Amino acid sequence: MRILQLCNKVPWPPKDGGAIAMLTICKGFSLLGHEVDVLAMNTHKHHISIQDIPESLKEKVNFQLAEVPAKITLGGLIGNLLFSQLPYNARRFMDESFANYLIKILRNNEYDVIQLEGLYLCPYISLIKEHSSALIAYRAHNVEHEIWERTAKVTPGIKRIYLQLLAKRIKKFEIGHLNDYDILIPITDRDGDILDQLGNTKPKHTTQAGIDLATLVPRAGRLEYPSVFHIGALDWAPNQEGLLWFLENVWMTLHQKYPELKFYVAGRNAPDWLESKLKYKNVEYLGEIEDAYSFMNSKAIMVVPLLSGSGMRVKIIEGLALGKAIISTAIGAEGIAVENNKHFILADDADSFVEGIIKMINDRSKYDQLCKNAVDFTNEHFDNMAFAESLIDFYKQHINA
Known about the structure:
- The protein has helices at about 15-30, 55-60, 75-85, 90, 95-110, 125-130, 145-155, 160-175, 190-200, 235-255, 270-275, 290-300, 315-320, 350-360, 365-380, 385-400; strands spanning about 1-5, 35-40, 60-65, 115, 135-140, 185, 225-230, 265, 285, 300-305, 325-330, 345.
- It has about 400 residues and is an alpha/beta fold.
- The chain folds into 2 domains: about 1-210 and about 385-400, Rossmann fold, CATH 3.40.50.2000; about 225-380, Glycogen Phosphorylase B (Rossmann fold), CATH 3.40.50.
- The protein has a 6-stranded parallel sheet with strand order 3-2-1-4-5-6, with helices on both faces.
- The longest helix has 21 residues, at about 235-255.
- The radius of gyration is 21 Å and the shape is globular.
């Protein structure tokens, strides 16, 4: 089978959930013996050189990068707000040069499946249909408008009004592209159900972000116990707001009780204003980590204080696979079938976060058992090769239908 994967950012390096989800599935396809081409927008925010991608990976997957700035500018935002009904998030990825690049590829190659990674590739579906007879699959990484609805609810002031308008535009855009594709690939069952409620009538098959079980291996040899950490892209608004909420509402209470306890914050692309707000006692801001898995293996308690967002948090899957004690909000753990107090600890308010962390500090046997359960859970449910094989079988059913 020959597959073309379209991405609105280059899935290398795999340092955020979206990139990881895109990269793992295309690697899975390749390892199953299928021919995979990736056409990715090389944006200003995530810009790389083709030489940055390892040769070992390029031997398995054919990467092509199209220069698409997709910059966020004040002028662009204001112009979009006043003179367009499209959400600014989508408009930035509607690019004529990318469309021409895609046409050229479709004219020169025949594909069995064209897989669109995320909502903002959907405007290209009509163009794809003009130039290809391939099965078109929309892989929904989340319910996009839900992220912005939730973000607006926890955002004060005039910015909330803009975010509410943006969420309405994104919802209209999202509904407008339902059923343009041939099949729907939600990343969680929950997202698939929501998209059905909004009007999806096409066949669907949930494909979560899997992990390479040979790569994510728990190593507790240098474990700093107890310690608390947060890792995630720090240019993503839900991570920013959740982290600041945790520092303001949870960390000071913990610091008073455990003056020697350290909280490590790791993540890429933190803006200056965020860095300036991380200066709490015993909080160590590390920025982007060269080896995220080694860092996670060295720390004990992972906190995911997400108050908004949608889809699935890949960092939680990685944390579970590495045997971390994870304390998360319900939104953070959304779409992952973990059980409270068995695989992770659910905390939706400050008191619950404090209580959960204290429990993990004061009872090492409970900590160890939670970590073991987490590893067993991911080994059983998140094998990337099983996900890739299942999706290929689904594609074959509909290609031959």
